[in-house]
Amino acid sequence: MTNPWLALEPGADAARRTRELRRAHERFLSAGSIAGPVRPVVADSWRRSARWVDPDGLAPVERADAELDEHRERHPLAQVMPLFRELLGPIADDGRHLLAVCDAEGRLLWVEGRQGVRARAERMNFVPGARWDEPHAGTNAPGVALAVDHPVQIFAAEHFSVPVQPWTCCAAPVHDPRTGLLLGAVDVTGGDHLASPYSLGLVQAAARAAETHLATLPAPATASVTLSALGRDDAVLSLGPRRIRLGHRHSEIVVLLASHPEGLDSDRLSFELYGDRRLKPVTPRAELSRLRHRLGPLLDSRPYRLRTPVLADFQTLSDHLAAGDAAAALAAYRGPLLPSSEAPGVVRQRGLIDDRLRDLLISSRDPVLLRRWVRTPWGADDLFAWQALLGATAPGSPLLPRVARRVAELDAELGLPPG
């Protein structure tokens, strides 16, 4: 086949191909091997999906009602839904197809078509608010289009999830024309007849038309890019209304790049991530390639850096620490930086932040701030903080006996002599 993104070559027997794909799918699930007429883009997606998805399961529904309505209203693709309905609505209105639009996380925002076909799709949770990215729904056109950032068809038993295999779909990613960031995907879902060059070309043209239309709209006020990484293992990057939850390794990479706005070359970034462990050069590059699919041009290379300044919560905390503002620093602290990360660069920065915060709180001798600190999970066993609180508590305070008791308990646990 000359076009790897098309499901069937001209003249192919759809029924025969479906049977071959079902056998290949069953063989993959039982033996882990892929043979037969499985396209490389599908084979790669099956391998990824097998790590995450039960082949007999359904996509989870994450948002509904008012929460979903608010998310849709704020999403940039709401501005091009009239255009999608104009270009693809006649297909979705024929009683055999659905028009669907998802955000960059694979969350379906709109699913439109005749009631009968929507009722059938509901049985596989192809509904607004459901997650149809690969990690939640396996191989499907919107999920693969987002994963590889390319228009694609997924035909019948090419779907990883068995309940979805009666369907065929075509999807194309849609980008912000100003920043290049992935906004989501537009999809048409229906029967086997969708496996044609015409269907894929039509969906791709609709995506390009949407990008062109978005480029003509007034530029929104510059959206700040914020990063939340304190007290959470998976950092969240917010670009205006869009929130991207990063995986473990991608969280580490973005934290390190946000900490080095001048950028890091590949060797330095690899060392900050992996230390002295010997890794194949492809390992960091593969992670960065996957991250670029999610962040688009926000991630630059040579050196690796974030093109837009990022307001990170741990940097705001560091600013308060540098200014000696103990109250503001404690208010900004949501927990350790990426607590489970073992990346040397993150571990070093996490320890520095925590030590500076403790030192500032202890030296402040402010009983209110010290009480707040020792009530947190991170300060509950901090002997030095409890000792500082004991010294800062006024004589005759009803809290004094309890603080003294806690200091004695921690002394005993550490094997220290009383007093």
TrEMBL record:
Residues 99-213 form the GAF domain. It comes from the Bacteria. InterPro entries: GAF (IPR003018), GAF-like_dom_sf (IPR029016). This is Transcriptional regulator.
